[in-house]
Structure formats: C-alpha cells, structure tokens
Amino acid sequence: MLSIIDRIERYIIYVLVFMLLISVLLGTIELGRAILAGIIAAPLFLVKTHTLFESFALFLVIVIGLELLKSIKSYLVHGSINPAFVIEVAIIALGNKLITLDLKSSPPEFLLGMASILLGLSITYFILKKAN
C-alpha cells in the first residue's frame, strides 16, 4: 500500500515540476515581451518607472518559481526538502512584496510586521546555514 502511495506521490511531483517549468517559461516570455513593449512605447527608448516596477515584480516571481523548482528537484533526488530552500523562497517572496510596495499607502504597522517577518526569516536562514 505504501509503495502505491509513493508512486502516486512521485507522479504528482513530476506533474508539478512540468507545470512549474511551463509557468516559469511563460513568465520569462511575458517579462521579455513587457520589457520590449516598454522600450518601444517609451520616448527615446526610456522606460517608465511604472513599467520598471512591473518588470521587477515579474522578474522576482520568476526567481521564486526557479527556487521552488530547485526545492522540488532536491526532493526528487534526496527524498526531502532542505529547509534553507524554503526560507530562501520566503525571503525572495517577501523581498518582491517590499520592492513593489507603495510606501505612501502602507500603514506603519504593516511595515513593522513585514520587517519583523524579514528579520525572523533572515535569522532562521543564518542559523540553518551555520548548522550545515
């Protein structure tokens, strides 16, 4: 019975890897399209700030996808996920949020909460790296 569950789990992971690869590939194509469209539409090949922020956000989402892919590959090879990979993905996702955040409309409590989460993730990452 456990071997059946292990096989089904492995097939699900392969499907997830395939879907993640497609998502990262399509996201990369969309990022290239958005950058080219921003360059062509801008006067004298200058990109608007709004377009840059959207591009940075999409770029970081693609990096998150690649980190998730690395985690899943690690699971396939070693049978477990390295907690440091999960923390890396969380730090990148939080960084994405912070980079694209509108500071003028964000309440101070929200910013303090984000800073606390980032500090906690950073300490955890440091401890995990030192332990290895």
Automatic annotation (TrEMBL):
It is a multi-pass membrane protein. One of its GO terms (cellular component) is plasma membrane. The keyword Ion transport does not apply. The chain crosses the membrane at residues 12-45, 51-69, 81-99, 111-128. It comes from the Bacteria. Its main location: membrane. Pfam families: PsiE (PF06146). Keywords: Cell membrane, Membrane, Transmembrane, Transmembrane helix. InterPro entries: P_starv_induced_PsiE-like. It is found in: Cell membrane. This is Phosphate-starvation-inducible protein E. It comes from Nitrosomonas communis.
